[in-house]
Each structure stands twice: as C-alpha cells, then as structure tokens.
Description:
Elements: H1 17-42, H2 52-72, E1 75-81, E2 84-90, E3 100-106, E4 115-122, E5 125-129, E6 136-144, E7 150-157, E8 163-166
Antiparallel strand pairs: 1-2, 1-8, 2-5, 3-4, 3-6, 4-5, 6-7
Amino acid sequence: xxxxxxxxxxxxxxxxxxxxxxxxxxxxxxxxxxxxxxxxxxxxxxxxxxxxxxxxxxxxxxxxxxxxxxxxxxxxxxxxxxxxxxxxxxxxxxxxxxxxxxxxxxxxxxxxxxxxxxxxxxxxxxxxxxxxxxxxxxxxxxxxxxxxxxxxxxxxxxxxxxxxxxxxxx
Length: 170
C-alpha cells in the first residue's frame, strides 16, 4: 500500500494572509487614535472659555439686568433694512429713553460671526449700521448705554417684518 503524502511547503508568516487580516483592526484603531489626537491638539474649541468662573459670577448680574427690563416692561421692535437696523423701544416707564442702545446679534455656536452695533437715537427710533448676518437662528440682545437693563430674545433671519422681543414680544 502506497499512501501518497503531499508535502506542504510552509511559507513564512508574513506571506500568509491571515496574520495581516488579524492585525489590520488594531492598526486601523491606532491610526484613528493618532488622527483624533492631532485634531484635538491642533484645533480650538470656541465654546470653551478660559475664564468660565468669571463668566459664571457675571451670570447673576446679567439675570438681574434682564429682570429689571421685565419690571420696566421694555419691548424692542427691530427691523433690518439692508445694512441698516432700526429699533423702536417701548416701555411702561416713560423715563426709559437712553441716548444710545447696544445691539448684539449672537450666533448660538459660532462666536466668530457675532455682530455688534451702537444705535443712536434719531427721532423716536434708534438707528445704526449692521452687516446682515447669515440666515438662521440668532440671539438678539439689546442693552442701554449704562448697561442697567437688557432685553434678550431669539430671532430667525432673514426676517421680513419687525422682530419684537421683550415683555410683550418673544
């Protein structure tokens, strides 16, 4: 009886496909971890503030200013016309007539495109220049010059009519 036995020639391990297949998973994970670390180190997270503690302390003062505006019944009607902004200020208290207003259009996630304008009193309105920001949801903040009160509300831009925020607005 003759049994034919085939002799198998063994190849070196690096010529076999299975070791490479099994090593590919950990190698991909290591490369992804290095890329993630590089992105985390090289990019700046604009949402995290360096002075978060001071901002937290100032939050109480900001809330008090918003409460004062609510107590005074201050409302703000804003209209964007090209690169001009017009604001009508309403209040239950007739003594609330500042010489200028500070307007801030703040984007919820992209602080780099926030808009600031100082509005001067002209007739019964406050007028100033403001570049029309990108469309979408914005936070509108209006303050007096002395920063004793502030009115804040959300706005969807572009707005085709007056945006009203405050006691009887948003």
